[in-house]
Amino acid sequence: MMDGRKFTFIFGFSILPLLCFSASFVPQDNYLIDCGAASNTSFGGRNFTADAFYKDLLSTKRDVLATTSSKSIASSADSPLYQTARIFNEQSKYKFSINQKGRHWIRLYFYPFQYQNIDMSTANFSVTAQNNVLLSDFAVQKNPVMKEYSVNVTSDNLVITFTPSKNSIAFVNAIEVVSLPDELIADDASSLNPPGSFTGLVTLAFETVWRINMGGPSISPANDTLRRTWVPDQNFLVTPNLATNVTNMAAVTYADGGPTENIAPRSVYGTATEMNSSSDPRSNFNVTWQFDVDPGFQYLVRLHFCDIVSKSLNELYFNVYVNSYMADKDMDLSVSSNNVLGAPFYKDFVTGPTDGKKIRVSVGPSSLNRDYPNAILNGLEIMKMSNSKGSLSVATAVIGTGSSSKNKVAIIVGVVVGTLCAMVLAGFFFVFCRRKRLRRQGLSKTWVPISINDGISHTMGSKYSNGTTLSAASNLGYRIPFVAVQEATNNFDESWVIGIGGFGKVYKGELNDGTKVAVKRGNPRSQQGLAEFRTEIEMLSQFRHRHLVSLIGYCDEKNEMILIYEYMENGTLKSHLYGSGLPSLSWKERMEICIGSARGLHYLHTGYAKAVIHRDVKSANILLDENLMAKVADFGLSKTGPEIDQTHVSTAVKGSFGYLDPEYFRRQQLTEKSDVYSFGVVLFEVLCARPVIDPSLPREMVNLAEWAMKWQKKGQLEQIIDPTLAGKIRPDSLRKFGETAEKCLADFGVDRPSMGDVLWNLEYALQLQEAVVQGDPEENSTNMIGELSPQINNFNHDASVSVAQFEASTTDDLSGVSMSTVFSQLVKSEGR
Ligand SMILES: *[C@@H]1O[C@H](CO)[C@@H](O)[C@H](O)[C@H]1NC(C)=O
Ligand SMILES: *[C@@H]1O[C@H](CO)[C@@H](O)[C@H](O)[C@H]1NC(C)=O
Ligand SMILES: *[C@@H]1O[C@H](CO)[C@@H](O)[C@H](O)[C@H]1NC(C)=O
Ligand SMILES: *[C@@H]1O[C@H](CO)[C@@H](O)[C@H](O)[C@H]1NC(C)=O
Ligand SMILES: *[C@@H]1O[C@H](CO)[C@@H](O)[C@H](O)[C@H]1NC(C)=O
Ligand SMILES: *[C@@H]1O[C@H](CO)[C@@H](O)[C@H](O)[C@H]1NC(C)=O
Ligand SMILES: *[C@@H]1O[C@H](CO)[C@@H](O)[C@H](O)[C@H]1NC(C)=O
Ligand SMILES: *[C@@H]1O[C@H](CO)[C@@H](O)[C@H](O)[C@H]1NC(C)=O
């Protein structure tokens, strides 16, 4: 496959996002022809060969080699190519032998000049390639032009034919025929008019009409792996005052499975145009660009996105319009980019055949983003698509051909019928697409039976569901009727939304017996949705633990994907650390939260025959109940056992940026130690109360894991702790905590402690804080993780003490396994 897919990843640098290189593309066919030249031309790092040096390339009866010394082209970057031309009096062909079939650039350079008695500006001719008409009745009046096409070459030779119109001549200054990576144009795209999907793009020829770098400067071919030119968007903004530039190159993270630099370079994804909300951060408007196009063609509109503005995932939602069609509603770049913040993403749309002379593209805030509406666009390409005759030529455009009155009738009929049909069609397409997606996921409507113990699990851990039944719901066990869910959420009242995640929205709800619940409603657009929905039900119906969020039920009626959980009064751990203005937690509260979540993870790793790897451990997935007891949530990405990934080595790296295990990233091999790594990041997050990735900070501080490790290694962790904790952490406790986090972040999984060891060390750190432990803490804290002072060993060998302290009621642990497992871990670690 493509070299560009490969990663180079070096851990330990402060510019993590910059370190994913993709090798530049090496074209199999690379013809650079300087037409009419007597010698080869080298410029801009490339060698154009004089067409005279290619044997059998050109077949022509009469041609003229023309040269000019005109100064008017000196300003053009390609000026050396424009100094010579070949002039044809009759049909003439260039024949290129093709090493590798597939998509190729065809770039044609034209500059008309006066040569002896020939005035090339009077030339009028057509150009065809393969079965495509690239140009017809074409004339270039004055300035140099370069026309760029991409054609899927399907035979061993590509013939480009120049045919002068009657009594005229044809000419060309230079030609490029260069292979393109297959990934560049996929076969399908979303169709805007009619709505649905468009397939068959691979067979078409395209002409590049516009290629725009939003919010940034021009990008020259030298800075693009496929030698494309990108121009700034300023001149296309309908209301420039409503938009503003944003640049953040370091945030761009080319991720596995996503676009490579061949799709668009970093300098495109690293700049964007966003809403100018400087006068009112809550104002609601669209940013709109407008482009002239030739009417009578369909266009492939490619929108490039990369969330370089958010501090964390799931902050940015916006709508995208193309020609006033809603192209993408509530677009969530976190979902589109597989939950890697700053991962590039693009989306293709095909316009209708009769959409006029302008293409308008707008982005505007989604109603989901009430507080800080924003919308961005990083890049845009508009490509004209060859029509049913294989033509890209304006002269062959099918507009107003035939009787115009017939067209008018058709339009009127169309409006009437169209209005009637639009809804029916839209509905049809919607259902059709959903069906198709469901089928693709390999899931029929019947659910895989899920082993359910006895349906009483919802009574655990939450005082709301304490001993009560679920009324209507409980009759059906876990499966809850849709009407009950509607009722519980006030018919999915938007004002009851308490969170938005990769999967969809989360509503607060109340069952009719008063049980408070959190209702997570799957977003039908979410590609991963169904698989994650299933995983989560399977995981949660097997795992019951007071430190794992419990599932009360689910609903899969009407293709819905709804999960109903116990309600966690105090929200996410993250919200208590920063960004929400909640009062800050004490050190003891934080330690207990860390211990609780470590316990939940430890149970996942060991409490079941097969280890379960959470894969998305982060502070936003640790929830707090009314007593600030921590529970681990969001099992959508979980997988059992490391062996799964050995058979699916190509599994895309999932998880959240800033928490990702570098070893998993490098080797794509998943083990429980990846969770340990992420948990180590959470520990530093808890200590420092700042986002794990904060691009607004100086470079060496952007990545919390690296920043904190730097200070930890210097032994000065206290320099960067949350100021509200200053002076409140006992040095020994801090030292133990820091060492534990440091061990979790070891480069290699084998060097990291198990979750059981982590749990154990955190408990020790808490003991040190509370000064329960006698003796010399200095000595203890320099011990290896897992090694314990005699006092601590004694303390913990008394299992009942430990259990009583942290598992107030072990009966809540349905598993009954977890504590003994913890204990055996502790005993085991002692012997190391
Ligand atoms: C261009 O040709 C020169 C010699 O004529 C050679 O040294 C150089 O490597 C060539 N450049 C490329 C990009 O092929
Ligand atoms: C021009 O380039 C072609 C192909 O790269 C080469 O075969 C030819 O020898 C070169 N001619 C001169 C005069 O350098
Ligand atoms: C080229 O010639 C054709 C007739 O052969 C004519 O219809 C057309 O207008 C000419 N195009 C230009 C741009 O002059
Ligand atoms: C080129 O077209 C053929 C069908 O004509 C298709 O099978 C192939 O995938 C296309 N190649 C690319 C790179 O689009
Ligand atoms: C935005 O960037 C472009 C290209 O760098 C520049 O021409 C333009 O002046 C910038 N606009 C603002 C408002 O900074
Ligand atoms: C473009 O490439 C040149 C060198 O080829 C480099 O100096 C320049 O910084 C690059 N510009 C951008 C925006 O990447
Ligand atoms: C943003 O809007 C403010 C107020 O309307 C205006 O003063 C400012 O010039 C705008 N900024 C840009 C970059 O257009
Ligand atoms: C944004 O543009 C779309 C399409 O033109 C329109 O429907 C929508 O109302 C606009 N939104 C705002 C806030 O102006």
Automatic annotation (TrEMBL):
Keyword field contains Membrane:
yes
Annotated membrane topology = Single-pass type I membrane protein
| Gene3D superfamilies per the UniProt record, alphabetical | Galactose-binding lectin (2.60.120.430), Phosphorylase Kinase, domain 1 (3.30.200.20), Transferase(Phosphotransferase) domain 1 (1.10.510.10)
Name where it mostly resides: membrane
Q: Where are the transmembrane segments?
A: 409-433
Q: PROSITE patterns, from UniProt? A: PROTEIN_KINASE_ATP (PS00107), PROTEIN_KINASE_DOM (PS50011), PROTEIN_KINASE_ST (PS00108)
Specify which residues bind ATP according to the UniProt entry for this protein. K520
Signal peptide bounds: 1-22
Superkingdom, taxonomy of origin: Eukaryota
Question: Which keywords does UniProt give here?
Answer: ATP-binding, Glycoprotein, Kinase, Membrane, Nucleotide-binding, Serine/threonine-protein kinase, Signal, Transferase, Transmembrane, Transmembrane helix
Ranges where the Protein kinase domain occurs: 492-765
* A GO molecular function held by the record: protein serine/threonine kinase activity
User: What cellular component GO annotations does this protein have?
Assistant: membrane
| Compartments, record wording | Membrane
Protein name (Swiss-Prot/TrEMBL): Protein kinase domain-containing protein
Q: Which organism is it from?
A: Acacia crassicarpa
